[in-house]
């Protein structure tokens, strides 16, 4: 056994972590089997934590009828890249099922009829699993000198439980790809990937805030041009993906954005906790006017988030050294989740890779992950089984505090960059990309150079230096003779 472990330690960490990521994806797929085997038992969604929106929305969003999202009177509450993914995977399944091409496979598996939704779920899950492994590879490239940091993403419990719940990996993978492209100085590609990710979920566009402010901190024309290229590439990409759908059916394209503005308080958010924790303290009447209706809730959440963005901007501009790109990306996404009215269970996928890059302290991240898993159990227990929400409130509060503490520690390391484990001896940001190299801190003043030693002869006497034309040249020669 000892020899086997010794051989494993000698293996290159990159392939090992990729292998662990593949194994983790397979375990995550296996974990979802009880809910997606065509014969789910009652309450299995929360007892086995295997619920997924993917299966539920196949029939609920018209794919089971062969309808295209957005344009054929179908309601899809997600941005266009997710709708496109649903169509590309789901519509061929429907077409093959209508023609009877899947009947033989269904009978071989013991099904009397074809369950299109189950096939749709597993195809979608495999695609998302590939995106998880691809994200692992990108994180390894970002942390070549610290491959162990990637372990929490590769086999993180919350990642394995959440990557099949919804379509968030369509945004997570491009977002991490954007950070990788930025670190390599490929500004336009970074903008394109931010635009692609934003066409699936909102959070990648938040990266623009720290990246643009970091450019402005340089106070050079070249840095401003970098910011302009980044924002321009992201905007053009997002428009290219969205404009065809908006022109085809403006109402259908606008549905996810209207849905977001009309939503009420989501489980686990700041406002959910406020609603449950302020009555015992007697504060309910004082805070409820700010969140007592959807317009007030939207306004309050926006103002609080903008205040957080102002704080992040001040931190970037005033920190003793330019804060690290990945740390500020984590900070702005964490601020969005801590202040937003919606916090779906799978949003943990947004934060895990950023936390791995921002503050790779394994103990703190492991504690946070344990809280996330506990919250997921409590959430499904309430939503599916209708149990009391006492445990959900407690785990939601623990999750909120855990992420707030992580964010505070990221701020502290930005203010004391010498304590950041990711920075090198010169305190440089390895992900700075086009903004690197930042001028290193001033070195101590150089000590005066020692005067050259005078050569001595074998007897130890000092031999004076004589040059042609010296007035004492003859005397020196006589002495030497």
Write the layout of secondary structure elements.
Layout: H1 2-10, H2 13-31, H3 44-47, H4 53-60, H5 80-99, H6 103-108, H7 116-142, H8 151-154, H9 157-162, H10 169-183, H11 187-198, H12 208-218, H13 221-248, H14 250-262, H15 270-281, H16 284-291, H17 294-318, H18 325-339, H19 348-358, H20 362-385, H21 390-415, H22 473-480
From the structure above, extract its key features:
single chain, 481 residues, mainly alpha, 22 helices, disordered C terminus
Distance between the termini: 80 Å
Quaternary form:
single chain
Residues in helix, %: 55-70%
Q: What count of structural domains? A: 1
Radius of gyration: 30 Å
Unreliable sequence segments: 438-447, 451-481
Number of strands: 0
**Cα shape:** globular
Explained architecture:
The protein is mainly α and 481 residues long. The chain has one domain. The chain is built from 22 helices and no strands. The chain has helices spanning 2-10, 13-31, 44-47, 53-60, 80-99, 103-108, 116-142, 151-154, 157-162, 169-183, 187-198, 208-218, 221-248, 250-262, 270-281, 284-291, 294-318, 325-339, 348-358, 362-385, 390-415, 473-480. Helix 12 (208-218) packs across helix 18 (325-339) and helix 15 crosses helix 21 (390-415).
